[in-house]
From TrEMBL:
This is Trimeric LpxA-like protein. The chain crosses the membrane at residues 337-361. It comes from Cercophora samala. GO terms for molecular function: O-acyltransferase activity. InterPro entries: Hexapep, Hexapep_transf_CS, Hexapeptide_acetyltransf, Trimer_LpxA-like_sf. The lineage of its organism: Eukaryota, Fungi, Dikarya, Ascomycota, Pezizomycotina. Keywords: Membrane, Transferase, Transmembrane, Transmembrane helix. It holds the Pfam family Hexapep.
């Protein structure tokens, strides 16, 4: 279940809230394994922020992370992560899968040789790619990886996590990553926090835990930070370097620090692309940007550098000339305004002069006619 109900945090704009409260989600319609009855993310029911957090975000829980029992679990998880990270990346995928299970399922039943019963039925991503009828049973995770506890970390078997992922999970809140997700390098997912008040940090020395849920088919770019109490809806894309501090709706592109919603995503894209089906074909395929005026020699480099400086100088001189032209045009505009104002003033003065002169002449003629009648 993905903790999203069509509601976006109140601080986002009303336009976005209205945009995402639709009755028929096209993403759900395109996927037969998603239905409103099984996936809360696809319902049209709108919740207030308080109800939404209470129902889907769970409760922020405090716990004494420094106590021996919590520290013991962290130490065991650290040892499992160390063993996972020491495994060569080109090692057998099932061996790496076993060491991943040591992180998230340390108490699972094991055979006499130390391997778990799941090894015989384990399906790796490589096997699933080779045989589409199979589904991977273990996520594809590249070392190094760092996890704090692992006890409430749930990663779907079809998900891929790239290098240097840091997962600061807690024993009091779930961290769920859905199916077919792609998580880029250097990502940090945080479920733990600390009291904001100085007294709370000095005296109680407690940590806080809040859940994080990442839906199905989510693509998270490199260097993304996901903060506690956040849910990311199905099909969303999080741009590289984003700090996710509030909920992201399904099928949404979100970027920035803090995160902002950019646009709703389409189900398909008509962007043309070439398919390379084999490594041998890739070696024969040319796909590079040309180097700027450089043939690889020192003289060529100096020539390219001189050309670049000349280009910058030319652009600078062009900008100066354009700035001077703009200043000249501005002066001409001001001169035109002054001339127009002067002409308008003269015209008004002449108009007033003729007007009052006419009045004066009219009164004079009236007086003369009056005297003639008196005679």
């Amino acid at each position: 279940m993905i903790p999203y109900s069509g509601h976006i945090e109140e601080k986002t704009s009303l336009r976005w809230r209205q945009h995402f409260r639709y009755t028929s989600n096209p993403y759900a319609a395109s996927r037969p394994d998603i239905s409103p009855s099984t996936d809360a993310a696809m319902s049209d029911q709108a919740y207030s922020t308080a109800v939404f957090k209470q129902q889907y975000h769970g409760v922020e829980v405090s716990f004494p992370a420094g106590e021996p029992d919590f520290r013991s679990v962290r130490n065991s998880c650290a040892a499992a992560c160390r063993a996972f990270n020491s495994t060569p990346e080109d090692a057998d995928a099932k061996i790496r899968g076993e060491k991943w299970l040591d992180i998230v399922k340390p108490k699972r039943p094991k055979k006499a040789d130390g391997t778990s019963a799941e090894e015989g039925t384990m399906v790796t991503h490589d096997q699933a790619i080779t045989n589409p009828a199979l589904k991977a049973t273990i996520p594809f995770i590249k070392p190094p990886l760092w996890v704090d506890y692992g006890t409430r970390l749930k990663v779907a078997s079809t998900t891929f996590i790239n290098r240097n992922c840091v997962i600061l999970d807690t024993p009091v809140a779930d961290l769920i990553i859905g199916e077919r997700c792609n998580i880029g390098t250097n990502c940090t997912i945080v479920c733990v926090g600390h009291p904001v008040s100085l007294e709370g940090r000095r005296n109680t020395k407690l940590s806080t835990g809040a859940p994080v849920t990442i839906g199905n088919d989510v693509w998270i770019g490199a260097n993304v930070t996901i903060l506690p109490g956040v849910s990311i809806g199905n099909g969303a894309v999080i741009g590289a370097g984003t700090v996710v501090n509030c909920n992201v709706p399904p099928m949404t592109l979100a970027v920035g620090s803090p995160v902002r919603l950019v646009k709703a995503l389409a189900l398909s894209e008509d962007k043309p692309s070439r398919l390379i089906e084999s490594y041998e074909e890739s070696t024969e395929f040319t796909n590079s940007l040309p180097m700027e005026q450089w043939d690889g020699t020192d003289s060529g480099f100096r020539a390219a550098q001189a050309a670049q400086l000349a280009h910058k100088s030319r652009r600078g001189s062009e900008q100066v000339v354009e700035q001077r032209r703009e200043e000249q045009r501005e002066r001409l505009r001001k001169s035109e305004i002054v001339v127009i104002a002067a002409v308008t003033t003269v015209v008004l003065a002449l108009f007033n002069l003729f007007f009052f002169a006419g009045l004066y002449l009219g009164e004079s003629r009236g007086c003369l006619s009056l005297k003639s009648s008196d005679l």
